[in-house]
Each structure stands twice: as C-alpha cells, then as structure tokens.
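WARN retry 2 of 3 for item q-0093 after timeout on previous attempt; input resubmitted unchanged.
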Amino acid sequence: MDFIDLKSQYAALRDNINARIQRVLDHGQYIMGPEVAEMETALAAYTGAAHCISVASGTEALLICLMALGLEPGDEVITSPFTFAATAEMIVLAGGVPVFVDIEPDTANIDAGLIEAAITPRTRAIMPVSLYGQVANMDAINAIAARHGLPVIEDAAQSFGATYQGRRSCNLSTFGCTSFFPSKPLGCYGDGGAIFTSDTALAQACREIRVHGQSQRYLHTRLGVGGRMDTLQCAVVLGKLDRFAWEIERRLALGEAYRAKLRAAAPGLELLTVRPDRDCVWAQYTVFVDDREAVQARLKAAGIPTAVHYPRPLHHQPAYARFAPADACPHAVAAAARVMSLPMSADLTEAQQDEVVAALARALG
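OK item q-0093 returned
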C-alpha cells in the first residue's frame, strides 16, 4: 500500500496529462508559456481571489509575499511552531524574526486567542498555517490583524480545496500561499506553488519579484528572485483540474469514513477536531497516539505505511531554537510527540481503508 497513491491518480488522468505535456513539448515555451496564464486564471476563478501568481514552490510563495510586503531586518512575523520548516525559514531568510504562538491542541492549528498578546511594535505580519488540510480560525485572525493594521498570509500549502465558512482557502486574507508539491491535494510532478491575493498592487509586486524584480524585460525596479513555475508543471496541474472537484469530495468522504471506522474500531484513539464552520481536505489524515514508534513498527510489519508531520516543533529545531525558549508552546511540543499520519489520497479504496483501520486497532492493542 502506498502512503499517497499517485500512480492510480496518474492512471486515471494519463491521457489528459500526457496531452497537456505534449502540447508544451510541441510549442517549446518552457518558461512562462501559455499554460502559466491559463492555470493562473483557472485557479483564481476556483478560489475567488482576484489574482493568482504561480511561483516555483510553496516555499517561494511565502518568501515572495514577505518581500512584497517590504519586510525589513528585525521585523516580526507571528506564526505557528507546528509546521514544516519552510514557514519560519522564509521569515528568517527575508530578514525577519518568527514569533511562535502555540496551537489549539485539538486541531493543531495556531490558537487565534493567543495571537494578540504576541503583537509588538515590530510585528509586521501574521502567518497562520492551515495544517493537515483544515483552515485556521481566519475570522478571528483577520479581526486581530485589522485592529493592528497587519497583513495576513495564509500558509495554505496543505489546504488547497478546503472551505471556511463557505469560502475557499487561499482567498481568506491578504495573501494565500499554496504548494503543488506532488503529495499535496493539488500537486504537479515536481515543485510548484501559487500566491493568491485580491490586492492589485501586491499582486503586481509579486509578479515582478518572481522574475528578478523586473517590471519589464531588463528593467529591475525591485529586489527579486528566480521564482517562476515551469510551464510543464503548470500543464500537469491543468491536466488534473477536471478531476479535482471529485478528488476533494473523495478526500472529505474518506476523512468522514476514517473518523467513523476508527471510532468503532479504536474508541480510545484521539482524533483531530474539524470545526463545524469549515472542512478538511486531509493532506494528511493525522491521529494522536502514545508510544508512537512502537505503533509505527507494528503497522510497518502489517504492511501499513505511516509518517509523522511533524516530529519536532520549530523552536526545538537547532536552526530556530534561538527564537523561543524550549518550554514555550507546550501544546505544539505535546502534539509533535504524538501525531501520526495514515495513508490518504483520493484513490484510497474502501478495502484499503478497512485494512488500515484494522491494523491500527491491533497495533494499539
């Protein structure tokens, strides 16, 4: 069993994806070819955002947004410590200081109720992470940001396709940034990402920054990066879009099925909470377990792959330990010791899911 089944997805989409790739090979515009604008238009319409700017990766998306906001050395950005390193990495690379705010223990998303106390005169932005495919409490976060005149950057690398109060992830704040890494809900076959915003001036800044700060060819009006998404990768995303709505429906249904089956088979197992005003597209189907290494070993012996997202909060990582004391953010520390992700993809079959649930129930013993 695959942890994420990309082979079945490709088998279902082979003709469409191959045709899209062949079209690029035929016209030969590998950088900023017509598929780039086509994908951006389609994804902007999907989210409802006015602008979509494709970029080289979800990581690059965060960096470009921070650069567009004019982050300066020493500026603080409030974020979660329970996320992939890229979130804090881009803040530091842009010259900023990540300020870690603890998570909600039941959702693993940043606790909006703790954000305001972390704001200082140096705060320049708030960067919540929509972890595991569920959007953070964006209304509360946006209200705090509005009171303090701060922009909000949603790190939506795992939540593209999710909804929050009827609105799409990536169209909930100043910026939304997503990733098209192959394992994401909408993935390409390499690296890729996108920035979403309805602020025209910020969108233009992002477009210039992704091409070395050029406002026109060889006129560099701002500091930039080489941050374009390849035409071939845009073609792959376009090749997947016809099936994407079905895949999101499947992810939602599989998430509900996992919950029901695990409740029945392993009633003591602690599951993530999905808030009633939003859904979760389950980029990873994650549960909380004690004695995780032993449970993973038993599952591996039964042929069930697992993963841990993430085994250490960022303030326990050597590169970021200087930004917070080790005893800060206790909920993030506790979650990092107990989270475990199960196989999840739109093509997971009912039989496979039953196999996972039965094996986990035995492993928990």
